What we know:
This protein is mainly α. The protein is built from four helices and no strands. The longest helix is centred in the C-terminal third of the chain and has 24 residues, at 57-80.
Amino acid sequence: MIITPLEILGVVGMALILFAFYRVNSGKWTNKSLWYELDNLFGAGLLCVYSWQKTAYAVLALNAIWLIVALIGLRSIYDRHPRLKKAVSKTKR
């Protein structure tokens, strides 16, 4: 069996999502944690690429929705933290 870069991409994406799931369920993170959302975002993104290349469109749809939910979660974190808003507004000047 030859391990391709695409296979590695899929495994890394899966590991990120499972790692986030484990950390929330073990109480080390909350489901509102920045790291939780980032792991889900990047994990789902990698799995979208993997699913697209493997023409697994049902899995692609699932991970695309997972990615969108992670983006919504990140937006929620941004809205709850005034320091983030200040930092972003300073960079826009």
